[in-house]
Amino acid sequence: MGRERGETKLSPYPSGHTEAKGEKHVALYLEIEETKDLSPGWHVDASIKMFRFDHSKDKYLTVEVTERFSIAHASWGESAFFPLKDLNNLSKGFLVNNMVTLEAAFLHISVVKDLSTRGLLLTP
């Protein structure tokens, strides 16, 4: 994301995200960082695709959602993206050479700034 929209970070939890009740699952989150320079009341509507690559089938498995990010909700993710037992089962094709491929695509639908703090005066 650009400076006026914050920076986006992909955060994988390969051993599970226990704080989000994601035990026994690989978790994957997108987070908007560097929000201190954004205007008060900001929010970003985004289309998100999260991918994991299945080497045995040579294809991606995806989760797709539309979410709203804001100062109160600067991250979104799947606490149970897929079971750890699938990651550790080599016949499932996710873990190859001790590596797993996890990706995310973040497409801005809109960025809304709170104009009420800009001193705008609307007259009829």
What this model shows, in words?
With 124 residues, the chain is mainly beta. The protein has a single domain (3-114), classed as Apoptosis, Tumor Necrosis Factor Receptor Associated Protein 2, Chain A. Helix content is 4%, strand content 48%. It has one helix and six strands; from the N terminus they run βββββαβ. The protein has one helix at residues 84-88, and strands at 7-13, 25-33, 43-54, 59-70, 75-83, 102-112. A three-stranded antiparallel beta sheet has the order 1-2-5. It has a three-stranded antiparallel beta sheet with strand order 4-3-6, with no helix packed on it. The model is unreliable at 117-124 (pLDDT under 50).
Task: Write the element-wise H/E pattern from the N-terminal end onward.
Answer: EEEEEHE
- The CATH architecture category equals Sandwich
Q: Low-confidence stretches at least 5 residues in length (pLDDT < 50)?
A: 117-124
CATH homologous superfamily identity: Apoptosis, Tumor Necrosis Factor Receptor Associated Protein 2, Chain A
Radius of gyration: 18 Å
Tally of alpha and pi helices: 1
- Alpha carbon gap, first and last residue: 37 Å
Number of E-type strands = 6
Helix amount, in percent?
Answer: under 10%
Region (Disordered): 1-22
InterPro entries: MATH/TRAF_dom, TRAF-like
Domain MATH: 1-106
Protein name: MATH domain-containing protein
Blueprint of the fold:
Elements: E1 7-13, E2 25-33, E3 43-54, E4 59-70, E5 75-83, H1 84-88, E6 102-112
Antiparallel strand pairs: 1-2, 2-5, 3-4, 3-6
